Amino acid sequence: MVEAFAVASGKGGTGKTTSTLALGMALAEQYDVTVVDADTGMANLLFHAGLADVETTLHDVLVEGGAPVEAATYDRFGMRVVPCGTSLSAFEAADPERLRGVVATLAADADVLLLDSPATLSSKSAVLPVVLADRVVIVLQPTIPAISDGLKVQEYALSYGSDVAGTLFNKVQTDIEAVRERADRYFEGPLLATVPESDAVRAARSAGEPLLAHAPDSTAGAAYREAADALDPRDGDSGDVAERFRTAVIPDPS
Ligand SMILES: Nc1ncnc2c1ncn2[C@@H]1O[C@H](COP(=O)(O)OP(=O)(O)O)[C@@H](O)[C@H]1O
Ligand SMILES: [Mg+2]
After folding, report:
1. What is the mean pLDDT of each run of 10 residues along the chain (254 residues)?
2. What is the spatial distance between Cα 12 and Cα 24, in angstroms, rounded to a whole number?
3. Is there an atom of ligand 1 within 6 Å of 208 CB?
4. Is 23 within a domain?
5. Coil, helix or strand at residue 127
């Protein structure tokens, strides 16, 4: 079985990478989970997962005659983790279209694929995870601009046949009832969880560890576990997912 999720938002800094790793670790208690830093232009998953010093990353896989994806796959925190490097020249050398084949390969060997997705919808490569995933987790900060950008992600996903897994509010500081009501009205899928603004999340990032490794008993950690429970991954055929990633026509948003 496999289900591919894109973890997306309209904006950078909302907590996509934090959320990808936290959901991944929670789901890994039950499933074979692979997380991929598909945000190849603004990659930061490596810093969250203690992989900043590794030799081979996704960038090395996305070039002609590049490394096999296995060489950029690391067993960490009970998951398989495919980090991406941060060098601008490596990003420019990489062919984002090759990400399709990489995801197709990884789909053969996972129950759950989590694609940490780019914030923008400005290029073919940036929309790829949202368009090709089975479902999209939309990470929002509880502000009107963030919700408005999140709605664009939802619109994009739905118009290309991806379902919305639900919304995840992050960095919540105060009572967000009014914002939440609005989100309930406009977003498909359930509210997966409300994650508080939290020192534990910041400390985990500084330590280079996913939240559920660094502070498993934190309130934020509990919220992510609740979100993971609500995801209830579907039993998709890995051949179908691989075929879709290899062959589907990706729209050019520009
Ligand atoms: N709930 C939270 N509380 C406090 N800081 C957070 C929280 N979620 C994320 N952060 C911090 O915000 C920054 C951006 O988070 P990150 O997951 O890297 O976002 P994105 O991948 O969307 O750009 C990081 O420094 C992270 O530690
Ligand atoms: Mg990120």
Report:
1. 94 94 98 96 95 97 96 98 94 91 95 95 86 95 89 93 95 81 87 95 98 98 97 91 89 75
2. 20
3. no
4. yes
5. helix
